[in-house]
Amino acid sequence: MFNFDDQFKEAMEMWNSSMGGTPWRVWAEGLEKSTVGPLESVMKAQSSMMKASQQLADKEMDFIRHRMDERFAYMRELCSCPNGAEVAHISTEFWQSAFEDYRDHNAEQLHILTKTMSENSAQASDALTESLSGLKAAEEALTPAKPTPAAKRAPARPKARATAKATSSSEE
Questions:
Q1: What pLDDT digit, counting tens, does each position of 19-53 carry?
Q2: CA 151, CA 6: separation in Å to the nearest integer?
Q3: Half-sphere exposure (Cβ direction) of 171: Cα atoms closer than 13 Å
Q4: Gyration radius from the chain CA atoms
Q5: Burial of residue 41 (number of CB atoms within 10 Å: 0-12, 13-18, 19+)
Q6: How far apart are CA 56 and CA 109, in angstroms?
Q7: Cystine design at 141: which of 27, 82, 145, 167 (Cβ 3.0–4.6 Å)?
């Protein structure tokens, strides 16, 4: 009859014996640690990038609305101008304001993006370090233990060489 518990126990014993007696849990935990950390890091990075993207899009829409309001105000002022000198003054103010708005908006967008990317890279670095330690633990669990020498052997004595004098005397 099929007995799952006995077969599972036999499989674990066979696994442990094939692993040279090292506990398979250490290997499995190290392997899990090496894969879960980077996966969680990617998921966190994706979440933070989505939040940052939404924040960037919201700020972009606010900026576009603001610039459209400024443009309509500019057109109204131009229509009510009595002379060319005022047109030049109003145009200069409008374009100066537009330049400053675009500069500030782009700096803010770049700050949000840079902050998000640096946070994500720090998380990824931590996850990679954790993954490498997990792989090292798995590798160490799979590496067979080195046998410890019971006693040091004395170095072998060098073999005696025949000397030239001994060789010549034996030829005679």
A1: 555 555 665 666 666 666 677 777 888 888 889 99
A2: 42
A3: 7
A4: 39
A5: buried
A6: 6
A7: 27
